[in-house]
Design brief:
- By secondary structure, this protein is an alpha/beta fold.
- The protein folds into two domains: about 220 residues, D-Maltodextrin-Binding Protein, domain 2 (3-Layer(aba) Sandwich), CATH 3.40.190.10; about 80 residues, Periplasmic binding protein-like II (D-Maltodextrin-Binding Protein, domain 2).
- Helix content is about 50%, strand content about 15%.
- The strands form three sheets. A five-stranded mixed sheet has the order 7-6-8-5-9, with helices on both faces.
- Helix 2 crosses helix 10, helix 10 packs across helix 14 and helix 11 crosses helix 12.
């Protein structure tokens, strides 16, 4: 009896996925929707997990996730070659310049970065920190942590990618690095000290961005994509065993690393998709100042969260 129950537990997620595909095949033909992400990163896991679990298919969406450098992705989105972008920060900067883009949902509003040092390293001894890019969110996160540690006299070195930063740590080419999941767990479980994190720092790390005309002309599609994204994020924070198994399979993480990575993801995934207006205004002001815009910019020129809020109300009634 126990063996049979175990088999059912293992097979249940597979049966759900199979049922989802079957329902999609029996119903209307799925609509191909193209989303660009800067990298296959856990920042964008709501899209990868949501696609794998059938949340998008159940909304009639055949989600195609295309990895593309953020500047190229924003250009392709603007010209209509793509339907959506997940590059939140760069899209907001483009909208500030008058590009007709709006962020319609926020998948991460807390930064998922940690400062990892060499074995035995203390904050006071850190003289250089490797980050994925100067001026990037990783750079900002590193500066924030070092300020908290009362050590701002450090040099920042760009490695171009988080993977390269992790390699620099292993090669002892740097005193400390700024990492995000799963590299954070890979390093700390290997014995590298976590000197501080930014899980409480509010900012925009990933989102759902569309053209203004697309939001207007494809209103139902946007609702479907937002609804699937919300359901995916809700499942991410509620179903630990399922998500850990997914991380092992799709991101090829070892069990302990997958479990520790999930612990971090649960803290930073924005299951609500929304953000408080004062917090959003503060973030936008920071981005505006960094981009060199003197005048304040109305939030409705950058964001349209009306569909998100409609969908949330609808889901609460079910």
């Amino acid at each position: 009896m126990k063996k049979a129950f175990t088999c059912l537990v293992v097979l249940f997620p597979l049966l759900l996925a199979s049922q989802s595909k079957s329902l999609a095949q029996q119903g209307k033909v799925l609509e191909r929707v193209r989303l660009t992400v800067p990298a296959k990163s856990l920042t964008f896991i709501p899209y990868y997990f949501g696609k794998a679990q059938g949340f998008f298919a159940r909304e009639g969406i055949d989600l195609e996730i295309i990895v593309m450098r953020p500047p190229l992705g924003v250009t392709a989105l603007t010209t209509g070659e793509l339907d959506y972008s997940a590059a939140g920060g760069l899209s907001v900067r483009a909208a500030m310049k008058g590009v007709p883009l709006r962020t319609v949902a926020l998948i991460q509003t807390r930064l998922s970065f940690s400062l990892i040092g060499q074995p035995g390293m203390t904050p006071a001894r850190v003289k250089n920190v490797s980050v994925s890019g100067i001026g990037s969110l990783a750079h900002y996160a590193a500066q924030t942590v070092m300020k908290r540690l009362n050590n701002e006299k450090v040099a920042y070195v760009s490695t171009n990618t988080t993977a390269n930063s992790y390699s620099a740590l292993l090669a002892k080419a740097t005193d400390a690095v700024i990492l995000s999941p799963p590299y954070t767990s890979m390093a700390t479980l290997a014995g590298y000290p976590d000197l501080g994190n930014t899980y409480d720092v509010r900012d925009l790390q990933g989102g759902l961005v569309a053209r203004v005309n697309h939001i207007k002309d494809r209103h139902d599609q946007v609702r479907a994509v937002v609804r699937a994204t919300l359901r995916s994020m809700d499942a991410l924070v509620r179903n630990e065993a399922e998500v850990v198994a997914y991380l092992q399979k799709d991101f090829t993480l070892e069990p302990k690393i997958a479990a520790d990575t999930y612990r971090i993801l649960r803290q930073v995934v924005n299951a609500d998709g929304d953000i408080e207006e004062p917090v959003l205004k503060s973030i936008v002001d920071k981005i505006r100042q960094e981009a060199g815009f003197a005048a304040e910019i109305p939030l409705d020129r950058l964001f349209d969260l009306s569909i998100l809020r409609e969908v949330k109300t609808e889901l609460r009634k079910r």
